[in-house]
Amino acid sequence: RQGSGKKMEDTFSILYFQKNGISNGTLYKKTFIEHFEQAPMYVAVLTFLGFGVGTVFGYLRDFMRAWGLEKRNVATEREQQKDFVPLYQDFENFYTRNLYMRIRDNWNRPICSVPGPQFDLMERVTDDYNWTFRFTGRTIKNVINMGSYNYLGFAETDVNALKTVTIELQKYGTGICSTRQEMGTLDKHIELEKLVANFLGVEDAMVFGMGFATNSMNIPALVGKGCLILSDELNHTSLVLGARLSGATIRIFKHNNMQSLEKLLRDAIIYGQPRSRRAWRKIIILVEGIYSMEGSIVRLPEIVSLKKKYKAYLYLDEAHSIGAVGATGRGVVEYFGMSPDDVDVLMGTFTKSFGAAGGYIAGRKDLVDFLRTHSHSAVYATSMCPPVAEQIIRAMKCLMGLDGTTQGLQRVRQLGKNTRYFRRRLHEMGFIIYGNDDSPVVPLLLYMPGKIGAFARRMLEKNIGVVVVGFPATPITESRARFCVSAAHTREMLNTVLNALDELGDFLQLKYSRYSKSSHPELYEETRLELED
Amino acid sequence: MAAAGAGQQWVLVEMVQAFYEAPAYHLILEGILILWIIRLLFSKTYKLQERSDLTLKEKEELIEEWQPEPLVPPVPKDHPALNYNIVSGPPTHIITVNGKECINFASFNFLGLLDNEKVKSAAQASLKKYGVGTCGPRGFYGTFDVHLELEERLAKFMRTEEAIIYSYGFATIASAIPAYSKRGDIVFVDEAACFAIQKGLQASRSNIKLFKHNDMADLERLLKEQETEDQKNPRKARVTRRFMVVEGLYMNTGDICPLPELIKLKYKYKVRIFLEESLSFGVLGEHGRGITEHFGINRLSGQGYCFSASLPPLLAAAAIEALNIMEDNPDIFQTLRAKCERIHKALQGISGLKVVGESFSPALHLQLEESSGSRENDVKLLKRVVDYCMNSGIALTQARYLEKEEKCLPPPSIRVVITVEQTEQELDKAASLLKEAAQSVLN
């Protein structure tokens, strides 16, 4: 994240027809409800207090370690290299050593089964307070998986589903051993690219072996010095890295805030480049479809109208939204009822909704031709391996209905149902949830550092695997647990999770919301949710 | 109290008296000063860079007039990368390129493991158990037992304390460098370093110092210069980390780095070594351990590790099986080396082309002995050589670079890759075909 100075709105942003004086009844074809409730003041105070106590103890521990009263467990240099400049300055690692280490067991949990709606975890214990782990050899079976990005449930081991993948693996093997421009373009890649272009409704597409690298290697190819990048505050690291590597000027606008974006656009065109006042070569807006830490959906109609007015280009990263939103799973473009021609560069990944790996960039033919010749990945990196490409092909065909079944559509609908049910119940219980009502990414706010560890550990005891995130991925006061709803979750699984959350919420005092069902009846009596139970 | 009151009154009286007794010019001056202050207080503030002189209408006009460049410049239809080779089927020893069957001298399949049945069955077993993708980064349930096993095996194989795997080859070095080397640190890197290293260095924002390819004297000179700098500012020197980035087997030139000398320099000038072994792993060394070096690696940081989905488990299982094969059959390295020597010798003396690379390097370059003057023409000539060979059943490719982005662009060349699967006849055929091609195209 680029900045933690996000101003939160204490209200729901309900865009019916008027908002901030802009009549956007024509822009939004359906209601757009997002929540970013602010917790009561005492919560912020207690959070800072918690970090303060942790820091004091951290200093105490460091002191004891320096004086040999406590064992030092940090990685140390070899004897011959003792007088080298140390790799890590002590204070750089303060947070890692004293705060992160204490709750480290909640991350990097190894699993030993398919990451479906339920999975098996390897049991890990620590004898020295999380400095080292050892495996007991037992597995915790059938833990409900609320952490993996498995939105449409394509992470499965069903033999029928994986039939074609098995065949392709046998035929092609696992490697390519060459780059796209040398000897690494297989017929499989051509097939996949045609299918992706068809799925998204654009002229052409290009696929890459890694989603992260798709951003970090193609943004520098598209923009360079003399260009301006307007990037959302909460963009993913890969977008930030790509923007930095390109050498263009980067300006950041407030998260999903159209006034901030418009002001930046106007200032950029009127005043030009800093100091020289030359006109900018091009202006490109970097946004994501769904922001994975907030659960918010980008305000695409407004951004597109701004981009058309100011002649800027739009780069949309649909890592989390492709397959997960939209009536047929085609992402935020479909969700808002817009045409894919409105977005200049459609980027996405196959890791989340398609259960594979890799990324794509799609758009007009001249854009993709340019990337074929100038992308860093096409020239220097190995191409995607064939079994993974086949998995994407079969998942996409299923989604498009080309395999002759309606399974794809069913999955999308099931995901929508699960998402809305889960969010509604959590609101009713009184938790503070961020994000759009239609986003399958559900951040639940924990705030206090002590609760991060407690929450994750207790959920694991109840056989539910959750993901918790704290500083530095989120602002320091807003640690959260993040749930990823999947189409493969059954109603029973969701109810189990919700009951566990209810209990734990009372035990850990997590129900901070001031609004519960009774005080906002108009929100819950809407009939627009036609797929609601 | 009364005394103070009287005192105050007395001061006032004194002031009034002084007022009457002051000379006229003094009063006038003071008066003007007071008026000036009042004017300044109430006049508008004056900002140097204020452009508030632009009216709304002018602003709208500027917005109307501004025309950006097109998002992408047009690409000529005959750009070589648009007319790429399409491979049908797996890129194994016999490869079908653009519909024609050829012997593969272009894919980096040194140990022939691409088509190995054991590797494939390990991958199949993993596919049955785990599916295809991991659906998450390492921190959020994306760590599978196969990943941990692969890391353990790699650490054991390379004889290091720990190992860490990334899901994308390019990202490995491009993320590892900025994880250790930050702004203000100093990195000494070889000129012929590959593009991934260059991007990693760019992302790290450290001070980069290039030394001539494999030239230890040049490196020592730079290190000495740095030392004198350090003596001027010892406090800064104590917190500036120093790194050296070299490749085991250079992709762009086919030769190896002189590791023993580098290690001597390392201890003399207190510099840490980053060794990039993508080509030398599994090739060099008696057991394929590459150019060995020991350094401890921290797992936590590295952007391409933390923020990206982990390697699909079927690939991890395939890699473990590959390691098994490497450990069980150490004689394949000897075989590979013998074949490299054979073709290296056979390719000597082709008129018009020179061989660039060590005799035991499985990735060679064939460059034009005399450049025609323009890179474009060189590329066209080499393409004709490649096409001649392809038409006769040997698949070759030119080495591709991003011409505008590379720091030190290598000259155009044909890439020749040697694998254990190629038979001696095929090696000889390739060499003679290249001779013929060079003869017909270049003379």
Describe this structure in words.
- The complex is a heterodimer of chains A (533) and B (443).
- With 533 residues, chain A is an alpha/beta fold.
- Chain A is built from 16 helices and 19 strands.
- Chain A has helices at residues 41-66, 94-100, 163-172, 187-200, 211-222, 237-246, 258-271, 300-310, 332-335, 365-374, 376-380, 386-400, 407-429, 449-461, 491-508, 521-524; strands at residues 13-14, 18-19, 22-23, 33-35, 110-111, 118-125, 134-145, 204-208, 228-232, 249-253, 283-288, 313-317, 345-349, 359-363, 435-436, 441-447, 464-465, 467-469, 479-484.
- Chain A has a 7-stranded mixed β-sheet with strand order 8-14-13-12-11-9-10, sandwiched between helices.
- In chain A, helix 9 links the parallel strand 12 and strand 13 (345-349).
- In chain A, helix 3 (163-172) runs antiparallel to helix 12.
- The model of chain A is unreliable at 1-24, 518-522 and 524-533 (pLDDT under 50).
- Chain B is an alpha/beta fold.
- Helices cover 46% and strands 12% of the residues of chain B.
- Chain B is built from 15 helices and 13 strands.
- In chain B, the strands form 3 sheets. Chain B has a 4-stranded mixed β-sheet with strand order 1-2-3-11. In chain B, strands 6-5-7-8 form a 4-stranded parallel β-sheet, with helices on one face. In chain B, strands 9-10-13-12 form a 4-stranded antiparallel β-sheet, covered by helices on one side.
- In chain B, helix 6 (169-180) packs parallel to helix 7 (195-204) and helix 14 packs across helix 15.
- Chain B is elongated.
- In chain B, 40% of the residues are buried.
- Chains A and B meet through strand 5, helix 3, helix 5, helix 6 and helix 7 of A and helix 3, strand 1, helix 4, strand 4 and helix 5 of B.
- Strand 5 (110-111) of chain A pairs parallel with strand 4 of chain B.
